[in-house]
Design a protein that fits this description.
The complex is a heterodimer of chains A (about 725) and B (about 400).
Chain A lengths: L1 E4 L2 E5 L4 E6 L10 H16 L5 E6 L10 H5 L6 H20 L5 E5 L3 E2 L1 H7 L3 E5 L5 E3 L13 H9 L1 H10 L2 E3 H7 L4 E3 L5 H11 L23 H18 L4 H15 L2 H16 L2 H18 L15 E5 L3 H12 L3 E5 L3 H20 L5 H9 L1 E4 L10 E4 L5 H12 L7 E4 L6 H4 L9 E6 L8 E6 L5 H13 L3 E6 L6 H17 L4 H10 L6 H8 L1 H13 L10 H14 L11 E3 L3 E3 L3 H5 L8 H22 L5 H11 L11 H4 L2 E2 L2 E2 L1 H15 L7 H9 L5
Parallel strand pairs in A: 3-4, 4-5, 5-7, 6-8, 7-10, 11-12, 11-14, 12-13, 14-15, 15-16, 17-18
Antiparallel strand pairs in A: 1-2, 2-3, 8-9, 16-17, 19-20, 21-22
Helix pairs in contact in A: 1-3, 3-11, 5-6, 5-10, 5-11, 6-10, 9-10, 10-11, 12-26, 13-14, 14-15, 19-21, 19-23, 19-25, 20-25, 21-22, 22-23
Chain B lengths: L5 E7 L3 E2 L11 H15 L9 E5 L11 H8 L8 E4 L5 H14 L5 E9 L11 H4 L1 H7 L4 H12 L3 H20 L10 E2 L5 E3 L11 H5 L6 H15 L19 E10 L1 H7 L5 E10 L9 H12 L8 E4 L4 H11 L12 H4 L6 H16 L3 E8 L3 E9 L1
Parallel strand pairs in B: 3-4, 3-5, 10-11
Antiparallel strand pairs in B: 1-8, 1-9, 2-8, 5-8, 6-7, 9-12, 11-12
Helix pairs in contact in B: 1-2, 3-14, 6-12, 11-12
Classes of the chains: A alpha/beta (about 725), B alpha+beta (about 400).
Chain lengths: ~725, ~400
């Protein structure tokens, strides 16, 4: 007879084995209020069950268990750590502890993904049996959400696997298929069919009626590989500190907390470490980093990747043949990305030689993969065979989509647009990979402006996951849907923005360069300026990234903008331009790949010798917090302007776009989300951000004035969502 | 003394049971110590850059408690980066030795403000983890007849003629006094709750005390050191004490000091420091003494050390209002009271380590605070702290309210 207890089906068989099949409300089983009620009630019932011989935990859903309820978890405000701690201790850990202390064997029958809380339930069982299927993904990915596994995941992993084996899994948030999990030691037994799970679990219980004690509850238990007194463990911990810091620069508390709890597991008792784990999770839950990561890095990222911006009533499309105009750095990267996704590519340049050179780039990247054993030589040949180098527009016949990737020059772009369109069918979408030129103006060259759209890739294309899609005034929903479908087809993330100079990403990105150069002109050391950028979590300092992008490119972009009469209209990079012109015109410092920029790139990178003379000022000094906030706030405020002006069509795209396209630091959750959780002078959120921006505005100028959207949201008591 | 050494404050953590089930097992040694430094800083709005040194006793400086734990604690508390720290080890005297060294630094005029105390997480860093020749060097052990301390304590009881009932009676009284003092808030002024990274309390009061302990309940406990004695260590003692027929193994887990986790911190400074920082002195340190006695019996040092300290100060035992003598074992205090001819009425009036536990390196500093609080509560003038010490050493310190 089966009984439903808060979504857990409780069924006892003739042998005295109770099978609990989790079938909670909603599409998945998750660690929400219903779960916590179920766990307690089921523990009560099991402890009182007469004639109990064993327990099997199974799932009626496709996934075994989906983990924590992130909406609930990310809504816990600062100051509520105590109730969070009590919830973790009393409602998650305590019932699991009661389950594992039952004096009968408890077995998890894992029929689908068991991630986070899902795996933590399994770790509190005496045995884990999993279906050997690629769908059964197992792991503790909490760190990727700014959290730690707080239902015993850290401590039980270490007590089961030992520190040396468990720590990398916890710090990376590794997800693995069941077979790998069995190798790692998370899973004890694999079965070929999902239907075999419960029978296998029951068979094991019958064969091992005494196997009810967890290793850590047996007196004399030793952690595999020993505790802190084994020097190998001490060494593992101290080296992990370095590798964690290299990755987070001290800006992400989750890996640090995981490391600390791991260390606690090495130095204190099982129960003590479990409490420390709860304290660590209670702490992380209210941090801005976790909230930002969950809100933007998880929910908004999923929404954007799921095609939230795609017009719903346009039929799905697929690109079979892609035409790329221009086999330069961008064109060759796009060719590679498309070909590896199985798309036939015509790579067109002014000469076959130039086009062949572009194809050679793919050969080089694929060759590396073969070398590393990630690809076979046959696959390499097959992918390369998809790319046809050409100098002939006629080869574009039959293409479903064109990406134009020639130099950033309006006339040139107009010319190739016209020439290409002559060979294209009616419905073929023409995408321009421009990084800043207004799409509506480029579309003037097209005979089908409704098919004309911006498809802005980032360099290097094979590594950068973002594509910024730009709607011209006349761009149709059909063209947009096709561009989004193509982006997803090549496994990249699309954001959609409205047309404006520099669109979203370029417009914001140049403010980082501009502010870095302003600091330089104020006389500060280039090394210090770059480090301030790194301190806020940017991948590279503003001057170094300027050298990469190149002074030459910025100078040319400004020239183009001037010619088009749009310079200064939207993108504020006046100081960056002025310095680029000085550097290039007077000193020939065009950037790293033009013989050097702000830095020399010899055997050792160092500031260009004449830079101090040119811009340095004796005794120039600013508070570090100001320098860091200037570099951050410029980008955030420009992003908010894009949102207010409607260049950005959603907050989610602003956050995802800034993280994937222009390296907004992970802790921020993107250049909009950062405002929601900003902390300053004891305040949190928009008010705190405005307060700090006002100080910067007073001290450094009106470029730090916040757009009205902030005070409107504040007055309405809303967040930027 | 050219300069007077004042006590400006003396605080401690509660003592947590020193095993994995103890509340402080989840607190690392640097956190135990740093919590107290933070409290001192906040209580007195202390400009930490004024502090000249931090001296912390620690008897098991190994693992996470090793490597100059005092300096680690200073850093972990985020004190000014100019502040040094030194870990010292004079076995169970370490905490009081730290206070005495601080007093000497002040008295010399070389320094003005010192934090002195100790830290010991016995649940995380087990006793003996830092080794030592006296534990495992056969030549040394045989040359000097070094036996486990408890056998020394049993020998003291045997010589003193204190039966199991006598030591258990002493122990039950310690429990009673400690429970009464704790429950009436006598320790509240100086016991600082240990908190987690969220600011939530982990332990706020001593947890080792067992109220309701009676001679009867204690009488059921096994003598811990009888088996070790039978293995041959009794014979080693008897070779040095030919008048004894046998060792009477009276000490049990119930009348010996408890294994606990904890930390202490005493703020010792010059008159100038008090004036500069606006601190009010609570007491001054009059004198201190340390010496060594016969190392086999090992634990008879407190009496001689007390006499030495009294002589230095030009005082007699009658001049001391209250005594805190570490209850390593019941017989140690009984011996001390006999040596100095003082009544139990003024010794360990709020119980001792038998009830509350003995966090080795931290205890001396804790006793200074407990003594000072009680002198204030009773409005008395002068007090003495004394401890028995490994290797036959003894230590004593006399303080006086100002």
């Amino acid at each position: 007879m089966s009984e439903n207890i808060h979504g857990f089906n409780y069924e006892k068989d003739a042998d005295g084995i109770v099978t609990i099949t989790m079938d909670m409300d909603g599409p998945v089983n998750s660690m929400n209020v219903q779960f916590r009620n179920a766990m307690k009630a089921v523990a009560d019932k099991l402890e009182a069950e007469a004639g109990l011989t064993g327990v099997v935990i199974a799932s009626a859903k496709k996934t075994f268990f989906a983990g924590g309820d992130l909406k609930e978890l990310s809504s816990i405000p600062k100051g509520e750590e105590e109730s969070a701690y009590r919830m973790i201790e009393d409602e998650l850990k305590a019932p699991l502890r009661r389950w594992e202390k039952l004096q009968v064997p408890v077995v998890a029958a894992i029929n689908g993904a068991a991630l986070g809380g899902g795996l933590e339930i399994c770790l509190a069982c005496n045995r884990r049996i999993a279906w050997d299927s690629p769908k059964v993904i197992i792991g503790l990915p909490e760190v990727t959400l700014g959290l730690l596994p707080g239902a015993g995941g850290v401590v039980r992993s270490i007590h089961m696997l030992g520190l040396v084996n468990a720590l990398p899994l916890l710090l990376e948030g590794a997800r693995m298929p069941a077979a790998k999990a069995a190798k790692v030691g998370y899973v004890d037994e694999l079965v070929a069919n999902a239907e075999d799970l419960v029978p296998a679990a029951k068979a094991w219980i019958k064969a091992n009626p005494e196997a009810w004690a967890q290793p850590w509850d047996v007196s004399g238990h030793k952690i595999p590989g020993g505790d802190v007194w084994n020097p190998v463990n001490g060494q593992t911990l101290s080296l992990a500190v370095g590798t964690v810091f290299k990755k987070t620069r001290g800006l992400l508390p989750a890996p640090e907390q995981i490391l600390q709890v791991a260390s606690e597991a090495m130095c204190s008792g099982f129960e003590s470490a479990m409490r420390q784990e709860s304290r660590g999770l209670a702490y992380l839950l209210t941090t801005k980093e976790a909230k930002n990561t969950i809100t933007a890095g998880f929910f908004q990222m999923n929404a954007v990747n799921g095609g939230a911006a795609r017009p719903k009533d346009v039929a799905p499309s697929e690109v079979k043949k892609l035409g790329i105009l221009g086999a330069g750095m961008m064109g060759q990267g796009i060719a590679y990305s498309a070909a590896t996704a199985g798309i036939q590519v015509v790579l067109k340049d002014i000469s076959v030689e130039a086009a062949e050179k572009g194809k050679a780039y793919s050969a080089k990247l694929l060759g590396k993969q073969v070398e590393k054993g990630r690809m076979t030589a046959e696959d390499q040949e097959r992918v390369l065979g998809l790319i046809t180098p050409s100098a002939d527009y006629a080869d574009l016949a039959g293409c479903d989509l064109i990406v134009e990737a020639v130099f950033e020059n309006k006339e040139l772009k107009a010319q190739v647009t016209k020439e290409a369109e002559a060979h294209l069918g009616e419905g073929v979408v023409f995408g321009s990979n421009t990084s800043s030129l207004p799409i509506s103006e480029l579309a003037e060259a097209s005979v089908r402006p409704d098919n004309f759209i911006g498809i802005h890739f980032f360099s290097p294309v094979d590594k950068m996951p973002l594509v910024e899609i730009i709607m011209g005034e006349k761009t149709s929903d059909e063209a947009l849907a096709k561009a989004i479908d193509f982006t997803r087809q090549i496994r990249k993330t699309p954001i959609v923005v409205n047309d404006s100079l520099g669109f979203f990403t370029t417009r914001v990105f140049v403010t980082y360069l501009d502010e870095g150069v302003r600091l330089l002109k104020e006389g500060l050391s280039p090394v210090l300026i770059d480090n301030m950028g790194k301190y806020i979590g940017m991948a590279v300092g503003p001057l170094t990234v300027y050298d990469e992008i190149s002074q030459e490119l910025i100078r040319k972009m400004a020239a183009t903008h001037r010619e088009m009469g749009v310079f200064g209209a939207k993108m504020d990079y006046s100081v960056a331009t002025e310095v680029a012109e000085t550097m290039v015109n007077e000193f020939g410092r065009g950037g790293r790949h033009h013989g050097g920029g702000f830095f020399e790139y010899g055997d050792v990178k160092q500031p260009w010798g004449q830079l101090a003379e040119l811009y340095g000022k004796e005794g120039a000094d600013l508070p570090q917090a100001d320098m860091q906030d200037r570099l951050l706030f410029r980008q955030v405020i420009e992003t908010l302007k894009c949102l207010q002006e409607g260049v950005l069509r959603s907050v989610a795209e602003g956050n995802v776009g800034s993280m994937l396209g222009i390296a907004a630091p992970a802790w921020t959750g993107g250049f909009i989300q950062v405002v929601n959780t900003y902390e300053y002078n004891g305040e949190i959120g928009i008010a705190a951000f405005i307060a700090r921006a006002k100080e910067l505005e007073a001290a450094y100028g009106e470029r730090f004035a916040v757009p009205a959207i902030l005070s409107e949201k504040l007055a309405a008591g809303e967040l930027l969502v | 003394m050219p300069h007077t050494a004042y006590i400006y404050d003396a605080i401690r953590t509660p003592r947590g049971a020193g095993k994995q089930s103890g509340s402080l097992n989840e607190v690392k040694p640097v956190s135990l110590g740093a919590g107290l430094l933070t409290e001192l800083q906040q209580r007195h709005n202390l400009d930490t850059s004024y502090v000249d040194d931090v001296i912390m006793g620690c008897v098991t400086p190994a693992g996470e408690q090793g490597g100059d734990v005092a300096k680690h604690i200073v850093q972990f508390a985020n004190w000014d980066e100019s502040i040094p720290g030194v870990q010292i080890d004079r076995f169970c005297a370490s905490g009081l030795e730290a206070v005495n060294m601080a007093a000497q630094k002040i008295a010399s005029g070389w320094e003005d403000l010192i934090v002195a105390g100790g830290v010991e997480s016995m649940s995380r860093v087990p006793m003996g983890a830092s080794g030592g020749a006296w534990l495992n060097d056969p030549e040394m052990i045989l040359n000097d007849s070094i036996v486990p301390q408890g056998i020394g304590a049993d020998t003291i009881a045997t010589i003193g003629g204190w039966s199991r009932t006598v030591v258990d009676t002493y122990a039950a009284e310690s429990q009673k006094r400690a429970a009464f003092a704790r429950d009436n808030g006598y320790f509240d002024k100086s016991v600082v709750a240990v908190k987690d990274l969220n600011g939530l309390p982990i332990l706020a009061k001593d947890e080792f005390i067992r109220p309701g302990t009676t001679v009867e309940t204690l009488s059921g406990l096994k003598p811990v050191f009888a088996p070790l004695g039978a293995m041959g260590f009794d014979d080693m003692v008897l070779k040095k004490y030919p008048d004894l027929m046998a060792i009477d193994h009276v000490h049990t887990a119930g009348n010996s000091s408890g294994i606990v986790d904890g930390s202490s911190a005493v703020l010792v400074g010059s008159e100038k420091a008090g004036k500069d920082l606006g601190l009010k002195p609570r007491a001054r340190i009059i004198s201190a003494a340390v010496l060594a006695t016969e190392p086999t019996i090992m634990l008879t040092g407190p009496g001689p050390a007390a006499k030495k300290a009294l002589a230095k100060a030009g005082l007699t035992a009658k001049d001391i209002d209250l005594f805190e003598v570490n209850e390593a074992f019941a017989s140690i205090v009984l011996r001390f009271m006999q040596d100095l001819d003082v009544s139990h009425d003024i010794v360990n009036v709020n119980g001792g380590a038998i009830a509350m536990g003995h966090p080795l390196g931290a205890t001396g500093g804790m006793l200074v605070g407990t003594l000072l609080d009680e002198l204030e509560r009773r409005d008395l003038q002068r007090g003495m702290v004394a401890l028995c010490v490994g290797g036959g050493m003894g230590i004593a310190t006399i303080i006086e309210r100002v």
